[in-house]
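Why this split exists: single-chain examples teach little about how molecules sit against one another. For that reason, every record in the complexes split bundles all components of an assembly together and asks for one structure covering all of them. Below is a record exactly as it appears in the raw files.
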Amino acid sequence: MKRTTLAASAAVALAWASQANAQANELTLCWAAWDPANALVELSKDFEAQSGIRMKFEFVPWPNFADRILNELNSGGQLCDLLIGDSQWIGGAAENGWYVKLNDFFDAEGISMDDFAPATVYAYSTWPKGTPNYYALPAMGDANGWFYRKDWFNRDDIKAAYKEATGQDLREPQSQKELLQIAQFFQGREIDGKTVYGASIFTERGSEGITMGATGALYAWGFKYENTPGSYDMEGAVNSPEAVEALEFYKELYKTATPPGYDNAYMEQSLDAFKSGQVAMAMNWFAFFPGLYADPNTGGDKIDFFVNPPQNVAASTLGGQGISVVANTDNMDGALAYIKWFAQPDVQKKWWAAGGYSCHKAVLEDPNFVNTAPFAGDFLQAMAGVQDFWQEPAYAQLLLAMQARLHNYIVADQGTAKEALDGLIADWTEIFQDEGKL
Amino acid sequence: MPNPLEAAARATPAPLARRVRGLSDRAIAWIFVAPTILLLLAINIFPLIWTVRLSFTNYAANRPNREVEWVGLRNYSRILTDDGIWANMQTTAHFLVWTILLQVVLGFTLAWLINRKFRGNDLLTTLIVLPMMLSPAVVGNFWTFLYQPQIGLVNYAVELVTGIPASSFSMLGPGGLAKWSIIIVDTWMWTPFVMLICLAGLRSIPDYIYEAAEVDRASKWRQFWTITVPMVLPFLMLAVLFRGIENFKMFDMVVLLTGGGPGNETLLASIDLKREAFEKWRTGYSSAYAIILFVTVFGLASIYVKALNKVKER
């Protein structure tokens, strides 16, 4: 009896010890479920081979990504050791102590933020913004860009019809207004016996879609969140005449140049519309461009890419993320080892080759970089002029207020652009007052 | 032969026997129900009290480091004076009233028709109740396809009947159709539930009452209004209560269909509450919002249950 008890106890202890050891030798990386995540899984096999640490991945679809992961962080969960979190989360994550501050680690390991593109360091790593307090390593550069049916644009009959209709040559749009003109030209046109439409754009209501889409126009018209950065002085900036014009433009684009029923569309719907041959142009994040180029039906020679066209200024909506160490990980050494491994120039080059968007200068400043992919040059151009949404701890409230105001005006036809932006200032003012910042 | 109970009592050591004899029936009953009561207090009453407390603060669950301030009635006054919240309440009321009305009319009619004996009755009943067996997530997704302007069956059917081009309107988009579209889906899904309850009511009416009415030469119409309706009414009212409570907290299906849009056109109070609580993380504010909704549902349900009891007593 005693021997049986002893054996059972030993087995339990052994199981417990091996489980604890397994936990110490594995890392869970959390990110959104999309094409680059699959590339990272492949890339991380090198890290597993070098370190002996087993990598696990938790990928959440974009519409639920913020909900799922922020709930996890809020509840003090230990699901993620490493997190590639959205850029807007960094303020809240830093102030709430969810992310590890990496300055000492960077200094000790000789990782310099000067080796990464400044716009990405500013957007993905620092809090307060622009200060040398780093909570993430720039991991995935991204911006909202455009792609189009090059085969249609090159067809003589279509070019002639466009010339006849507008008096201009059909080409990649050089301005937002030209983009609208081209989209309207294609809207409802018969191509190869099929009705096609102008453009697929972001109009989604629930998470961040319509804000990410409309800011592409707002930034191009020169939109600013504040008159003076850091002052929260929004009157005259958020509702400037340029901002009003940009919002009216986006509404016109939605009303006159998108497929029917396109009133709640984000990344997936945009990709579907393009891949199914419904639209001549589409907006989406650069992260999807490798997959689009590889698509057997609409990729290759049939597709080309362009940066968000300027209007008053050249600007694009920022996407992308940095990689952070979650503060309550039980494998801090392993998580930091992964960051150290990922920061190496050679790994960053492999990351770009695998389909990820490196932010490392060793990749971006390589003279041959623009030739490595048909969208590489556009990516560089976009990253030079990216602008991001508020990265405040209260960003979720700020974002949802903008979602509601924009969707009400653009899709639901309620009020004017000026009223929408005035209302947005009122919403944001209340939020900043609650935050004690006004 | 000695009584076994007496034998057991005699065999019980004296100190223990005294203790056991000291417990009354009521005490023993309490011992049995206490774990359940404690569990209920822990998972129902305590969170409710805690929510009331939070509703007077500016607490944000995602900001553990921020100082929690007592804000008095500010959350309540903000909610009750917010035009957006009142608009959401109206949207909820619109959804509630129309879904219940349609489900009662259609459910009762279906039950009345299916209550007759005919060939294939069982198969037809099974087919009719199929929608309510589906997950709301599945229903939301496939109705999104049915409502799709280019490939959706609904738009195609409308074009076939009216000649209005299918891709010229969107059932879930702008134009005022979205709030009716979600009513149609909910009615499609839950009318069978009302039908089943009505069917139970109809089948509980004894045949001899109708036979007596026949003897008295009461017309079918008169039998319907003086026998069928009054005797099914308590069942029907119960169905209305269930559907009312369910639809007041409707969330999943509408989120999948419209996400509350276009704009705020289908933003039901429950969707708005979820956004405030778990997307904006305004925990104090959303606690006040939840309390207001709870009091509303509780108040309305209490009045309704009293009315239901009166109908039953008749």
